[in-house]
Amino acid sequence: APVKLSFPYNRDQLMFLMQHDSDGFNRWDAGQQLSVQVLQDLIGQHQKGESLVMDQRLITALHTVLTDESLDQAMVAEMLSLPGEAYLIEISEVADVDAIHAAREFARQQLADSLSDALWQRYQANRELSKQTPYVAASEHFARRALQNIALSYLMQTGKPEVLAAAIDQFDTADNMTERLTALAVLVNSPFEAEKAKALEVFAENFKDNALVMDQWFSVQAGSTLPGGLERVKALMQHPAFTLKNPNKVRALIGAFAGQNLINFHAADGSGYRFLADLVIELNGFNPQIASRQLAPLTRWRKYDSARQALMKAELERILASGPLSPDVYEVVSKSLA
Hints:
Blueprint: H1 11-20, H2 24-47, H3 56-67, H4 73-80, H5 85-90, H6 97-114, H7 116-132, H8 139-155, H9 161-173, H10 177-188, H11 193-207, H12 211-222, H13 229-236, H14 247-260, H15 262-265, H16 271-284, H17 288-294, H18 296-299, H19 306-320, H20 327-337
């Protein structure tokens, strides 16, 4: 079993460790601890209906890390990655999905605005190298692309026209799937509807004969946290490349939506839960293994507020009462409700 060690560092100490520790892991770990504390502050502010105010120490520390060119670029990219919503839910006693999403998005926006010059400088330098250097599967290249891509994802939050142009250029001219998919993802999560639609159309046309790459095309859209996530997923289910009979497609679209797009899946009206339960009932008839695996998000119902608990539990009970269930599905549902 993993051992979790906890040291009572205060925020000034965590900021110092992020900026100066000689060990890369210690720097990253201090960054994660400080990020969690800052995000938990923001979650609390949101729950009290207060204006969100971010602790500047995280911004200061990340600016130091971002502008220190002696550091390993892969580590810098990892340090810029805020703890995900799923992790914040996991460490919450009662998970407030709306507050967690609002807090994390606010923090991302604050970091994007405050660090935009340093992010743009890093992005341009790395992207220029990517253009000049033929693709090689080497660690230093992975590191360069990792920092380049996380910088782009932050920069898109600023909505600046030069960043949009850079994302489109990266999408159009990248010689590897990592850069192309990142560019597609940042466009899909942006408010630029025309550019987003064009990129999705071009990608689908280019890779329509490659089933595994099309899985990524579905997942990128299923994971978009913009409003209307469920409607997008339902529309994508009508796409000719999608079929419920293919487990990879189910995982790519339905699994990505229910497992990663937490703000849309956990919509307060329970529509995401109803959708997943309907699918599980349908899949139970011809692919019980994939049906039982898709159930995982509903089985965590005890983690959420009482209203969501009731909605999730009701869908599990509906699945149980839906008729003869396969042993796989019955086991997961009955254990979850026990």
